[in-house]
């Protein structure tokens, strides 16, 4: 893996180089094994939290982990193009626009002992901006090579906090063109429902049942790239114990192995569709 500046990453994309890199501040990673018409993203996979914020943060490491999306990059790591956040969303949230990307409170609890300095905020917002500069360069390149591009925007959510039965998979679609892409969205939902999980876990999948696809990553790509479909794909945290932080690697691996088949199959459906 290379450590590259933002300018180097963008220039390598422009030159259609294949590479695996981390940004020079370690805030995100990008792997391109081939320039294909689909991207896997895991913007909330990161857990890093820079040291200058530690003493000022009122949330514990576990509380931060609880609201992150651990292992979502691992679930799609075998695919040709993977972009993933390495920093915690508590430092800055890549799935929110810049003006709300830095939390004052998080999930009902004050986040900082004292207000962040302008210097700290600017450092976080620069990382946010850099991620989207690279996202823009990547999507621009792919749309120049292909008539349309599909993005698998991977997330997870805490199912035990709900007081009703919730699906293993949820697709959030309120910010994509459902008239244009509705049948493809339903196809992806039905494919996710075929995933077989260990430990007697039953797979269910629904659309807009728990979350609605309001994230900035989806909105940014959808608004700037008219021939791209972003599928906000959330798995409930059945692959771990939300309350202890223990990961169930056999469940993570089962999801990863089956997505190796289902994602390319979905790409073929997307390429065939007249949208």
Quick description:
The protein has 275 residues and is of the alpha/beta class. The chain is 35% helix and 19% strand. The protein has a single domain (2-272), classed as 3-Layer(aba) Sandwich (Aminopeptidase).
Keywords:
Aminopeptidase; N-formylglutamate amidohydrolase; 19% strand; N-FG_amidohydro; 275 residues; two-stranded antiparallel ribbon; alpha/beta
Provide structural commentary.
The chain contains seven helices and eleven strands. The mean pLDDT is 97. α5 links the parallel β9 and β10. With 275 residues, it is an alpha/beta fold. It has a single domain, classed as Aminopeptidase (3-Layer(aba) Sandwich), CATH 3.40.630.40. 35% of the residues lie in helices and 19% in strands. The radius of gyration is 18 Å and the shape is globular. The strands form two sheets. The chain has a nine-stranded mixed beta sheet, with helices on both faces. This is N-formylglutamate amidohydrolase. It holds the Pfam family FGase. InterPro entries: N-FG_amidohydro.
């Amino acid at each position: 893996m290379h450590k590259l500046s933002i300018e180097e990453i963008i220039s390598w994309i422009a030159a259609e180089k294949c590479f695996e890199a981390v940004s020079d501040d370690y805030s995100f990673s990008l792997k391109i094994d081939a320039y294909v018409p689909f991207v896997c993203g895991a913007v909330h996979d990161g857990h890093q939290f820079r040291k200058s914020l530690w003493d000022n943060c009122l949330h514990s490491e576990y509380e931060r982990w609880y609201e992150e999306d651990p292992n979502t990059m691992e679930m799609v790591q075998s695919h040709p193009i993977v972009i993933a956040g390495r920093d915690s969303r508590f430092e800055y949230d890549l799935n929110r626009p810049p003006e709300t990307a830095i939390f004052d409170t998080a999930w009902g609890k004050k986040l900082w002992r004292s207000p962040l300095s302008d210097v700290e905020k600017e450092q976080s917002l620069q990382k946010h901006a850099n991620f989207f500069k690279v996202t823009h360069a990547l999507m621009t390149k792919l749309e120049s090579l292909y008539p349309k591009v599909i993005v698998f925007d991977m997330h997870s959510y805490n199912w035990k906090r709900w007081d009703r039965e919730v699906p293993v998979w949820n697709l959030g679609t309120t910010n994509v063109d459902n008239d244009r892409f509705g049948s493809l969205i339903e196809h992806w939902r039905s494919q996710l429902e075929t995933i077989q999980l260990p430990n007697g876990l039953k797979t269910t999948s629904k659309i807009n049942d728990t979350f609605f696809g309001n994230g900035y990553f989806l909105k940014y790509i959808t608004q700037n790239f008219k021939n791209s479909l972003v599928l906000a794909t959330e798995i409930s945290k059945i692959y771990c114990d939300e309350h202890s932080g223990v990961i169930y690697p056999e469940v993570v691996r089962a999801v990863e192995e089956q997505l190796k088949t289902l994602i390319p199959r979905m790409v073929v459906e997307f390429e065939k569709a007249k949208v």
